[in-house]
Structure prediction request, 1078 residues.
Amino acid sequence: MLDAAMLDAAVSAWFVVLQPAVFGALFIGIIIGTFIAIAPQGLGTPLAYSLLIPVAVTLPPPVAIALLLGMDGVTSFGDSFLPVLFGIPGGAGSQAIILDGAPMGRRGEARRALGAGFTASILSALLSVFVWILAVPLIGSILPLIGSPELFLLVLWGMSMVSVMSGSRPIKGLIVAAFGLLIAVVGMEPFTGVERFMFGQLYLLDGIDIPVITLGLFGIPAALNLVVRRIGKEQPAVKLVGSLWEGIKDAFRHLRLVIQSSLIGLLVGFTPGLGAFIGDWLAYGFAAQTCKGARETFGTGDVRGVIAPDAANSALDCGALIPTTLLGVPGSLTKAFFMLALIMMGITPGPDLFTKHLELLFVMIWVMFWASLFGGLSCLIFIKPFAKIAELPYTILTPMIVGFGFVGAFGTNRHEGDLFVFLLSGLLGLVMMRYGYPRAPLVLGLILATLLEKYLYISTQRYGFAWLGRPQIMILLPLVSGLFIYTLWKGKQSMKHAQEMALREEHAADPPGSQQGSSERGLK
Amino acid sequence: MKNKGPTFFALFFAVVFLAAVWMARNWYFTAKLFPLFAGIPGFLLAGVQIWRELTGWELRHNVSGVQMDEAYDDSMDAALRRRRTIRFFSWLVVTAVAIWAFGLPLALSVSLALWVRLEAEQSWLMSLCFGAGTFLAVWGFFTKLFGLGWPPGEILRLLGLPHLLS
Amino acid sequence: MKMLRRIRYIKFGKVFTLAVLLVGIGLASDLCAGDAPEVAERVYTAADIKITDAQRRAAEGFYRGKTIEWVSYTNPGSGTEMMLRIMAKYLPKYIPGNPRMGSVQFMRGGGGLLSANFLYSRAPKDGTAIGQISAGTHRAYIFKRKGVEFDLNKFTWIANYLPQNHRLIYTRKGIGVDTLEQLMKAPRVNMGVTEVGHNFYNEMRLGIYLLGFKFNIISGYSDKEIDLAIERGELDGEVDAADSFLVEKRHWLEQGKVVLHWMSEPGRFRKLPNVPTILELAKKYTNPPFGPKDLALMQTNWDLGRYARYLAMPPEVPVERALAVQEAVGKMIEDKEFFQEFSKLTGFDAEFTPGHILLETFRRLSDQPKENLELWLKLTGPEPLPKR
Prediction:
């Protein structure tokens, strides 16, 4: 239960969030997050973080947190726009939405699909915030048991995310994760002062900044995609018809499904590494197994097929914040960015946040609460005008992305070396996409490498190899290994199931007599 | 050779990992631990991938399903895609050089304005508005509002105008 | 009459003898305790800047209507940026002509060398650019690190505004090292630090070298992590800046949770007068006995670790402008309002050390014998220490 200090912190944080500067930053974040979510494919939350972090870290921490989490908390809501309106994936958690959202959109029931999805997202996000609050006092009692060896194990668990993020390409995923580990060690090693992979370049002494790499890796291919495909000029948007109110009622009608999917999302979010990519598929698959008549209707435009992944996606977002803030282990890729922002503000997530910045922790919780509420409500209210942003032509969007990219890349260190890294990362991202190498494991390797190295070094320096015999390790190690294996197995199961569903949809869409398989349709 | 591009890309990774392991060999144990931890398995995995590319393993095993990243759009004409890609990247490189030479606010504004006019084929008015808006946002927001100045461009510095528009 | 004179001579003789004895005892105790048992801290003020009225008027004529740009080796959003912003608020009113404070150019990277190189060769030399130089920059210069493109002695040094002296070494109580003798006998004491080569790291290494402590120095922690690690028993102690220790961990002291072992500077710290200095301990306990080489090593360590934040201008800035800005920095730090705001927002007390004192320090360092510098380099590195 919450003790007096926590209640105190929770109450004072509530009023901190209501301050004009903080609330204003929250709204700005919501606006940016909504824009990011509904803009065409490629403008994801990682890009938004990369652009906002250099600015956010110059602001007071509560304002910065409101800006970043306001943005992050809303992107999962707007993920539904593109799958429903364009039939293409928007954000990371919106792939499964396509299966039922796109058919609904094609039928003209886009408003119903969007209404159901947004309402489910609001409900699940609010439930997740409540769970987060409950997790705070429980985490406090186990903190003294968490030393460097335990943190190493937890981060290692996070690295198991690589296998999930590799999807159907584990080898390629591991290669790029290893590459990310190598990039992360460039610079002076803090334990011995050895200069690693600097090639005589002073610029590399402090290492390569992760935001510069991720800006290039995601931003340049995103902009290029718009330019090459002439988005907005060659793909017209779906005309919005149907009843928004019917969609809202659908979400309340299937409340059990919302709660069920939220719990799946929370669990996935809390497990470092599973992330948004797998959450919506698991929820979708589980819904297909448990909902009445779902096996016949899922994939053809069943609103439950939109509610399940949307609810999971939202809950996952908040669930990922729990290990990020309370244990210092990022629950997903985007939360790794948030963690990076906190570290740049001088706040170490994990035990440090809990003991020394408790009020700030509750600021994050309340910010998520308001972001979920206002983000979801604004999505509902502004479906029509928001949809229009998604229709912006590439002629407007491309220079905006490029402008933000250069400002973000150059703004970190104001050194031309960063421009070079930015361009090189963009080229790398493009080639990786071209040859089917997932980019997410590279970023994960980049972000977690320094933590892994640090905790491994500290553990062995302090305890030798005796740290493996610590009681906490003896409990955690089998648990982590077991979860890792379970993750792999579950991932494989869900991929198998999703492939089956995709094949079903393919056969439903193909004209009679057509024998096209998924490989021939260009899926790599 | 089948799959030339993917093969060379896998080879690139193999070379990088091998070079990393080689460079790290004489460092202190703690300094070389991670490069070896990443480099040795990375090299072996890259080797496996090279073999897969050379033998067409992935095509034979029809690897599809959950992608975990954006799927590359193969439906466009390859030559047109290549042409647009090269033009776009060239523009990015020119913009980067211009930033080094003239400072970010000026270079970025002019570059974006020219792109909107020449590549996106919008009107002069639109492109000038875009350029002015960019300058206002970058210089006004960062330099004026937050006092976060930009380094002067090398050309401007050599001309004795280091504070101009930075 | 003769009797009276005799009595006076005897009295004078006794007094004189007593005086000689007292002086002798004082000298003897000085020799036993160290060369400088209590060195009064020299506090510099703006009055230490020798600027004439004519020079002030000349500077005023130049700075009126001008904008001063800052160059910093850190990121926006860092603690150092906060310090710069506070200085930018107060400094203009003390510079003759009241110039405007312009934007800050952040040039992080290269361990501070990138911004130092820029300030040295590419920033305007007319007095309109002030740079913040990192403390590691002079180390890089003295040890001729690759990438240094400046001559440290040719910068126009303005001041140091943040001292980094008075390092305190302490351990937590109850682990069997509550006295110095126990600390010297302990087989292993786990000490935390952020990185190899840090001033705090160097302090511990000095203790190992001179006094044979068996410190297991574990680097890689962040500042806050060290505190947490000490609380949960993963670490036994650390080196910390005495001022910030007394602010942030005073409760540990009051609750008797820690033992303070020594301080870094040659003279005792006025806020902790009962804590001996490393110089005192070295003279008392080292075997072989403390000698000139050891003192030279200590002096190098003091000089290289004394200052935390330098302000400098490019070379060849006209003298009157440099002096005017130096004086302005001194006056700014004496400004009570500035001092309080700086202290409140940063947690540190600003302290003025004029540029010519910095230059003296750097020249003294540059003139060190090569073997002393090499020994100091080994002290601050990761390899095992040589035997004394």
Remarks:
- Chain A touches chain C at residues 54, 57-59, 144, 147-148, 188, 190-193, 200, 202-203, 205-206, 344-346, 348, 351-352, 355-356, 411-415, 417, 454, 457-458, 461-462 (CB under 8 Å).
- The beta strands of chain A are 187-188, 195-196.
- DSSP finds 24 helices and two strands in chain A.
